[in-house]
Write the structure tokens for this entry.
Amino acid sequence: MLRYIALSLLSVFSFSFSFEKPIFITGATSKVGRRVVEKLASKGIKTRCLIRNYTKAEEYFGNLDDVHLVKGDILDTSTLSHIMTGCSMSINLHGVYRKSNPFHKLKFYDLHNKIEDKNHPYYVNYIGTKNIISACKQNNIDKIVRVTGLATAFSDSHPINLLFNSLYSDNIFWHKKSENDITSSGLSYTILRPGAIKEIEYEYVNLVPERTKPPGTIGVDNLANVIIQTILPSRNKFEDEPYSFKNKIVACKGYNTRKGLVKKGVLSLLHH
């Protein structure tokens, strides 16, 4: 069985993709984003990457013919829709994860949801995602892929979420809000909730139902491979059964042995 899974996935990644329209990507210069863009380019898939630091992006992707860099901001609604024109789908890897500023938090709750810092999770994780959903609809882009995190499976009142939202600027809270907007948008979606992202490589990745909670980790390259799988659901087969990522929230955890894998989860070999 394991050999079958490995061969099945290898066939997925050796397949020469052909997309007439580019894929719109945010967060391209992040560790995961960089791997995703490079992997797509190696397979001849065109991408249009929204970036803020052009110098950094040019350093990463300047030698890749199928990567189109566009300087912009997900908060700039006057240009976002135009930038996304002609794209086939949207892969959204943007996000912030930072310690709280108590003064910003006070402003946020006491002054009618107004905060000055545009790098706050409220703007980046939530408003930015809302803007992308709107731009997708304006451009008849039907598919969106979003990466959030395992902790969004907890309720808002769970002690872990209360702690982390307090320490990290309500990061999880705004990720959950953005997930709700995506699932109710009418767009075809896949939301991936990875464990803590590490610079390591796991032998296995378990793709399990959205209710799965921390702890858990996943390798940068592992997650990049899963993201690419989401754009070809009809070609994915796991455990002898077809598997589609369409309209699903999927948790992703890495393992180096079969021990501890969720029996009802989808076991995939993502070591390349």
